[in-house]
Amino acid sequence: MLSIIKHKLYYLLFLVLVSLDQFTKQIFMSSYDLGQSVFVNSYLSWTYLQNTGAAFSIMADGEIIQKTFLLTVSVLVSIWLVFWIQRTSIFHLQKLFGQFLLLSGAVGNLIDRAQFGFVIDFIDVHVNGFYWPVFNLADSFIFLGVILILFERKLTV
């Protein structure tokens, strides 16, 4: 219990980020038709897609076994992240922030997978005819979390 208390602001951040992720996904599910795309500017569109696979739609055409596998992996990774966070010192601010971004993204997509059997994607970035695969806020949290952890600066006291 003590370790949860020492990370309480990070857990609050986690709740805010997961809520924001779920809120934006609900907007697209309720306001857009599947596959509908709305041009925002020359670099961004809102495109509502349902990803039944993993990152970059890997295993997207899978049967129930693959969907169960992806859900199980999501649960295990989320549990592992909580244990990793609990073992991280409060003095590793950048690492903790990265870990909580990772956890927020993992849980955001886990909620989709458990509830719908797919992950809701809607951010469509494109530059000069190059289109990045459509993603969501949870995916962005995961990406930023990995960057923060990989490039963690060590604090010296």
Give the helices and strands, then pairings.
Blueprint lengths: L1 H5 L1 H24 L5 E5 L2 E8 L12 H23 L6 H24 L2 E9 L2 E2 L5 H14 L7
Antiparallel strand pairs: 1-2, 2-3, 3-4
Helix pairs in contact: 2-4, 3-4, 4-5
Task: Please give the radius of gyration in angstroms.
Answer: 17 Å
Helix/strand order, N-terminal first = HHEEHHEEH
Number of contiguous helices: 5
Indicate the structural class.
alpha+beta
Task: Describe what is shown at a glance.
With 157 residues, this protein is an alpha+beta fold.
Can you offer a commentary on this structure?
This protein is of the alpha+beta class and 157 residues long. The chain has one domain. A hairpin with a 2-residue loop joins β1 and β2. α2 runs parallel beside α4, α3 packs antiparallel against α4 and α4 runs antiparallel to α5.
Task: Jot down its keywords.
157 residues, alpha+beta, four-stranded antiparallel sheet
